[in-house]
Structures are given as C-alpha cells and as structure tokens.
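Holo model, 6-O-phosphono-alpha-D-glucopyranose. Inputs:
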Amino acid sequence: MCGIVGYVGFREAYPVLVKGLHRLEYRGYDSAGVALVNGNALNIYKTKGKVSRLERFAETQNVGGNIGIAHTRWATHGEPNDVNAHPHCSESGTLAIIHNGIVENYAVLKAALVENGYTFRSCTDTEVMVQLIEYVRSSNGCTLLEALQIALRQVVGAYAIALIDKNDPDRILAARRSSPLVVGLGNDEYFLASDATPIVEYTDKVVYIDDGEIAVIDRGKPLRVVNFDNVESTFDVRRLEMSICQLEKGSYPHFMLKEIFEQPSTIRDCIRGRINIEADRVTLSGAFDNRERFLAAQRIVIVACGTSWHAALIGEYLIEEMCRIPVEVEYASEFRYRNPVIHNSDVVIDLSQSGETADTLAAVELAKSKGAFIFGVCNAVGSSIPRATDSGAYIHVGPEIGVASTKAFTGQVTVLAMLALTLAREKGSIDREQYIATIRHLVQLPQLIEGALKLDGQIRELSKIFTYARNFLYLGRGYNYPVALEGALKLKEISYIHAEGYPAAEMKHGPIALIDNEMPIIVIATADSLYDKTVSNIEEIKARGGRVVAIVSEGDTVVRGIADYVLEVPQAPEPASCIVSTIPLQLLAYYIAVNKGRNVDQPRNLAKSVTVE
Ligand code: G6P
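Output:
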C-alpha cells in the first residue's frame, strides 16, 4: 500500500509526478503529496484525499522544478489528514522523504530522537525515518548517503523510500526492504516508482531494486546501486512489456468494467504458447522443467490472500483431481505465523496478482527457509514474489488496475489448470480423453467468456432489483464453491453490502436460518456432476420463501422452473465452467455498486497491493 514516485531530469517534475500518482492510486488513496526542489527552495504540497484534490490545491502554488518525489497514501500510522500525508520533512526543513511500508521500531527511535531535541509534527513512522537520517548526518558529519546507510541499519520493518535534499538538487536516494521499488532509465532522466506503471510512457528500460539496496540516482550520471555497507551491486536493466493503453480506461466508465470485458483476450494471452492445440498438448514450462520436484512432493501447499486465495481453492480441486497429489490451501497471513509443518519435500505455490502482498511474500521466505520448493504464480512481471521463488508462471493478463480483482482471478485459475494438466500428464494420472477434452475447453474459454459477457444488459437490469438489499448469500458446490466465495467478496468490496459465500450443502448448518424474502441468494447451478444436489438446495431455499438468482447452463429448464431469476451461461465442463460462471457474478457486483454510486475502482479502505501485514 502507498505508492511512491520520483523524477530527476530535464522535464518539469510536477506533471510527471502527478500523472504517476494517478497510476499508483490503486495502492492507496487517502492522502497525497509532492515535494519539489526548485532553486534554493524545497516546496512541499500535501493534502488529505485523492490525487485530484492535491492537483486542485497545487494549481495556485509554485510547482516548478525538475527534481521531485510524490506519494499517495494508505494510512497505517496516523489518521489520513494533511499533516500525516507524505512527503515528510526533517527538523531543519532540508530533507524530504516518501515511504511505502511500516517502521516497526518507530516508537523506540522516536523516543531517542525526542531526547535529542527533535520535535514531531505528524503521527507517522515515516517522519521518524527522515529525522533519524538528519540526526545521523549532523551528529556524524557524514554524507547523506552514509547517513541513510547508518540509519537504515537501525530501522526494523518494511520500506521503499525516496529521499531528496534541498541542498543537492541533482540527487534522489531510494532504498528498499520488502516494499517494491523500480527505477526507470531515460535519456538524461530518471524515474522511480512502486511499480512500472508511472514509468512506461517515458522509457521501457527499468531496474528492479532488491531488498537491502539503495539506488543512487544522480542527474546526468549513471545509476549506482549500493547496499547498506556501501558495497556496489550489479544490476540488470530489464525491458518493460507493458503498453500505455493497458493503463487507460478507453471508452469504459471504470477500469473494473474494462477488465471484466478484457477477459476473452486476457485468457488468450494466458494460454498463448502454452497450449498447442494441433498436438493436444499443454506445457507450463515452469512446472514442466521442475516436474521431478513436483511429482516427488508429498503434498503441495498453496498460499495466497483475498481473491487469489479463492483461485487457490480451485487449484486444490484441480490438482488433487488430476494429479492425485494432496493439496492444502492456506491464508498466507495465518501460514506465516502459525509455525506450520513444512518439509523439504513440499512444494509451496504462492499465488498473487501483484506479487507484492506482504504476507504472501513472507510465506515464501518461511517456506524457503524450511527447504521447500517455491513456485510463484503472479501477474506483475518483475515483482517481489516472482523474484523470490525457485520457479513459476506468470498469468499474463496485463496490469489490473481496478482494486477488485477480476481478470487476474480467471487468469490464475487458467494457469492452475494448465499446471495440473502438465503435471498430470507427466505423472500419468489423467486419462488421455480427459486430458484432451480439458485442453480443448481451455482453448474455447475466450469464446465461452464472450458468451457470458452477453449477459451484461440483463444483469444491469437485474441489479436494479437488488441495489438496496442489505445482505446477500452466495452458494455453490464443488468447483463452484470458491466461485461463490469470490462472488460474495466482489460484492462486499465494491458495494459495501454484506455478502457471504457458502458451500451450498452447508447452508443447512446455519445460513438457512437467515433466509427470508429480503435476502437475495445467488446460487451457481450449472450442469455439472453436483447439479442435482444443487437443485435440491434451491428447493430448500424456495421452501423457506427465499429469493433465488441462479447461474445456470444454457438450455436449463429445471432450475428455470424454480428460481426467481436465471442467468444462462455457456455450457462447459470444469474447470472452464467455473471460470465462465464467475463472469455474471463480477458484472452483478459491478452494477450494484454503480447503482449505489460507489467508487468502483477505488473502494473505501481497500488497496490493491497490500504491502503491509
Ligand atoms: C488485496 C486486493 C485483492 C487481492 C488481495 C491479494 O486485498 O484488494 O483484490 O485479491 O489483496 O492480492 P494479491 O496481489 O496477492 O493477489
């Protein structure tokens, strides 16, 4: 959470920084600020609220200068207000810092600084860092780089920071530990940011800074990267594969709707080069190349958070069914702190859209330290998790900007299906007929999703009936149980309506008591092996006066006769079917949130990339 941007070069810094903040707003949007060095002045403008509010505020200010840093915040220490917004300034007013992360020992450091006469304006941990750096510099008489290195050796926690000094208008120092940091290399100019999205329109050359490293970014000089002991690090310059149109809404009113409608093409990108339909063969190379490790595993553990955790549950069903290897799915935040049993024969799959989720990243480190083989399934290329794993596979669905995950979920399930198929073939645990049929349905997924997207108009109308419902229940069985969980999460995230997902058969152990004609119940009742059982569950709901919206397969007549409303999706076997069933649930959540006037792309209190625990 929190997004940081920096620029030094020949352009006016402010427009670059503000545009960058808009791109990073998905990371947090409760306050924003910018610091610019212009001549002898260090100008800091910051305000509570979104980046657009900062822009309105800065309109009347002097925003000149071609070096600066900027920040969009998701509050951890201190409520979102003008004072707690970043950048934060040192006591003397010389240094300005921006920070993404948490300083865990800030209270101890702050107490020591207060004893030394420092005063604090904000309640943030970040202000402690900049004061500490200034204190070290003035008490040791050292350079700013040396002071930063000494200070960071005392800081416990996670951070990506950028620091400027008004007396050195050609230099930005940026450091990271556990929070992402990318430097963009232009011609005579440098960019830095939490991810590559603010950089891509200026240059496609980037350097991903590693943990424990400091980027020394000097106008007109080559980039240097050093560690906290001042040892020079070598670094690779990577080429970005992102395009600007992926970062814009185009004709869509929201990124979320754009991303829902992109799914036919994102699934095509996801399977491209991995499925050879002529040969009826799927090869997920990261899994294939490490097949011995996978097939020797006593078990596979999948760790994830949020929507990725729902995709992981589908992965569990797929791998167990096709590969007959036991799979456990864990919330990363629980896994990392509950002293789990991990054997060196285990394979741990880390599933994360952003590749930056702090808990998932910590789970990688924990499993690694116990000798497990770590496989990452991520979307953001070059992010921290793929760089920390032994091997992995990208989902290749392009940047996802709406805070509520949509296309990443379907991409994750598709990759997990390809992983299961790759391993099952190698293990010989799947019969050829099923193998070929599953591949063919994955290839057809883009058309099947296009079919489901045709429900758009119908769902927009249906959403009007339910806009003011206060609670929703989502039910599904088998592969559709995680889909029910995901449908409920989508609605909660963006409409702020309470919604619960449940295995349909578990309904009678509790939620059945909630049924009345006020609470809509969404049931995924597509034609699969559990169809008849799900139909019985719908009967149970109707017998108690509940209102049912059923997702059914095209041509269904049975559920149509019982449910209040039906949404027909193209028929397909698993796992293609559960991906297709997800589409109407994404659209339903979207339209209900729009009807309620919610900020769909930036729902309150949420952030897309959760880089704090
Ligand atoms: C946040 C996002 C969710 C996402 C979750 C896990 O809560 O709002 O959309 O599913 O983090 O993120 P990851 O990037 O690890 O998949």
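The longest helix spans residues 432-453. The chain has a mean pLDDT of 95.
Archived with the compound record.
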